[in-house]
Write a structure and sequence with these properties.
The protein is an alpha/beta fold and 258 residues long. Helices cover 40% and strands 14% of the residues. The protein has helices at 18-31, 42-50, 98-111, 128-136, 150-155, 170-177, 208-220, 223-240, 243-255, and strands at residues 3-6, 36-39, 59-61, 85-89, 116-120, 141-142, 158-161, 182-185, 200-203.
């Protein structure tokens, strides 16, 4: 007996071309005899069930991999309102929404010249020049790959991820667990981590204007309200994304009688 875990569908499922057909065929063959297929969000499950790649009785949705609430413990919110720090954690690539984010940063800096935008991760080769140019212009601070993101989350007022598609973003779960508000895309794999207007803001995917408006809206909030958003985010993680709970759900599915 075996089980499969789908952590995200990626760009292959964005269109209806040959790549999707090929990947679907491979999925269909490889998942056919799985006793259960675990998904990190309902959107991915619905796609594979609708395309008859997975049977409904096989599909099990988990709240991602969950987050270790002890490791990503509550962190005191920054005491000073300025400079306002936004943090991006992930690969600098088109599918993470960086084109929209870079454009929104340029606009926001005109309105809030003291705002700071930190980037952790690495970039795809064709973004090297863009990253260096924006650093030289003083628009962003690029920190490269980091083994430990917690010190950067502690310094941030808000974590931003305008991704196009995700399985379930660990970056968002970990940041919310540390009491940081989130701004992210209204897509499965991201929106589950946010309670709109209470723990952060959701933006339209691939929409520069929507992203800019969310950043500006957050910037206008009083410091106390930003802090309260973060506390509510931690509570959401505790209720819905505790890793211990996800492990129990997984084990219960594996060991139940089929």
């Amino acid at each position: 007996p075996h089980y499969a875990n789908v952590t995200g569908l990626g760009t292959a499922f964005e269109g209806r071309g040959a790549m999707r057909a090929l990947v679907s065929a491979k999925y269909r063959i490889s998942l056919r005899w799985s006793r259960s297929v675990f998904f990190e969000n309902a959107g991915n499950r619905d796609t594979l069930v609708r395309d008859r790649i997975v049977r409904p009785r096989q599909a099990v949705v988990l709240p991602g991999a969950g987050v270790n609430l002890a490791e990503f413990a509550p962190a005191p919110y920054p005491e000073n309102e300025s400079p306002l720090r936004f943090l991006f954690v992930g690969r600098i690539m088109r599918e993470k929404g960086v084109e929209e984010y870079f454009a929104a940063i340029r606009r926001l800096r005109q309105r809030y010249p003291d705002a700071e935008f930190d980037f952790i991760g690495w970039y795809e080769d064709h973004y090297e020049e863009t990253v260096r140019r924006m650093e030289q212009e003083g628009l962003i601070r690029f920190h490269g790959f980091q083994l430990d993101v917690k010190p950067f989350i502690r310094q941030a007022h808000c974590v931003v991820l305008p991704s196009w598609h995700e399985g379930m973003s660990n970056t968002l779960l970990e940041s919310a667990a540390m009491c940081r508000p989130l701004i992210t895309s209204r897509i499965h794999g991201c929106m589950e981590a946010v309670k709109e207007g209470e723990t952060g803001y959701l933006t339209q995917v691939r929409d520069q204007e929507s992203l800019y408006e969310a950043l500006a809206r957050f910037a206008e909030l009083p410091l106390a309200q930003k802090r309260e958003m973060g506390l509510r985010g931690r509570e959401l993680m505790r209720r819905k994304f505790d890793k211990d709970m996800v492990v129990r759900m997984t084990m219960n599915e594996i060991f139940q009688e089929k």
